[in-house]
Design brief:
This protein has helices spanning 2-19, 22-36, 38-44, 52-77, 82-110, 126-150, 160-172, 174-190, 233-237, 266-283, 319-337, 352-362, and strands spanning 112-116, 119-123, 198-201, 206-213, 217-222, 228-232, 242-245, 252-260, 294-300, 305-313. It is of the alpha+beta class.
């Protein structure tokens, strides 16, 4: 049995040696190294491990590696097609790497460094995305022409039915890929919504920092829930976008509205809200103390007066945290000063809570 297995092994080895050249062994060795170190190679191509495209690029590279191995394996059994099979696999691998290198060069040359939540990130611009897209298109076209020539199928290029079928497929799927890609290019070209910008979209209840804009989608970091949100570019641009600031580390003017019942003087409420602001400012570096607070009346309603406290924070990324602290300070001070934050009833008879607050305010 062992002798029989050994004879089969020697037969396969002689078959492989008759098919593969020294160059083929070199290609297989390089392909194996690329497969083993694919994650490190992709990280060197400009993708961070936290980037969603990192995992996709790693698996795509490994898929190309496996394709090359399979084609070389098939070449052993189809010796007459050994050269076309090996060249096809090598072409796919080289075009993949060259396209990524071209995209990396475009990112480093035309990309823009932005600071997002204290971390510097090299983000794509309109120029880098367009040049990277051109690089992928050129690599795909060159690969297609090489494969066509290797397999001696140049007559396909003269057949209008084949080219017509390709055009028909592209046209019939335009509703899938065209809207997001076109809107992505528009977003990148306008430079209004850049990585690090703080935006609010009320239609979809979104208050977030822009992390990245690609040709297909925009990635956000939600300020309320602290997780990432992926939104197609066509859906994003169809909404009303409020750009609060172009940089999450810039100062941001904020407002906090309070409904307070009638029966208090303006001086009392102004003093109350100023103390709220001062208490939050004393707790840390969240509030910008160089900009004093402003207290205004927004509305004299039927049940209460809407007072607005305007303040400035040092970092737009901490917008929600500032709102929490302002509301907490207002809640605590309302008991200390006897100013209720609950909307009072228009008609109330012997309401002990309101009576207690009114007596406390008079004192």
């Amino acid at each position: 049995m062992e002798q029989y297995i050994g004879e089969i092994g020697q037969l396969l080895l002689s078959k492989v040696n008759s098919v593969y050249s020294l160059f083929d062994y070199f290609v297989l060795g390089v392909n194996a190294l690329i497969f083993l170190f694919s994650s490190k190679i992709v990280s060197k191509l400009g993708y961070a491990e936290s980037d969603r495209r990192y995992n996709a690029s790693v698996w795509m590279l490994r898929l190309v590696n496996l394709t090359l191995f399979v084609l070389y394996f098939l070449a052993v059994f189809f010796t007459e097609k050994a050269r076309p099979l090996s060249v096809t696999g090598l072409t796919l691998l080289c075009s993949f790497l060259l396209a990524h290198l071209f995209q990396l060069h475009a990112l480093k040359r035309y990309g823009r460094t932005r600071e997002i939540a204290g971390t510097e990130t090299l983000s794509h611009t309109y120029q880098s995305e367009v040049i990277g897209l051109i690089g992928w298109a050129v690599a795909a076209l060159i690969s297609f022409l090489i494969v066509i020539n290797v397999w001696d199928m140049t007559s396909w290029l003269h057949t209008t039915s084949v080219l017509g079928a390709v055009v028909l497929i592209v046209y019939s799927t335009k509703d899938v890929w065209a809207p997001d890609n076109i809107n992505g290019l528009i977003l990148l070209y306008n430079n209004d919504v850049e990585p690090g910008s703080v935006v609010q979209v009320r239609e979809i209840d979104l208050l977030a920092v822009v992390v990245r804009t690609t040709l297909t989608q925009t990635v956000f970091k939600d300020l309320r829930r602290k997780y990432k949100i992926l939104l197609p570019n066509s859906r994003f641009r169809a909404c009303k976008i409020e750009i609060l600031t172009s940089n999450s580390n810039d100062n941001l003017d904020c407002n906090a509205d309070f409904k307070i019942g009638y029966g208090f003087s303006s001086e009392q409420i102004e003093s109350f809200l100023t103390q709220v602001w001062q208490r939050v400012a004393d707790d840390g570096s969240l509030i910008n103390e160089e900009r004093p607070p402003k207290v205004r009346i927004v509305e004299n309603g039927d049940h209460a007066v809407v007072w607005r406290l305007s303040y400035r924070i040092n970092s737009a990324y901490r917008l929600i945290e500032a709102e929490y602290l302002i509301n907490r300070a207002a809640y605590d001070l309302s008991y200390e000063l006897g100013i209720g934050l609950n909307t009072p009833l228009t008609h109330s008879i012997d309401n002990p809570t309101l009576s207690h607050l009114a007596e406390k305010a008079e004192r």
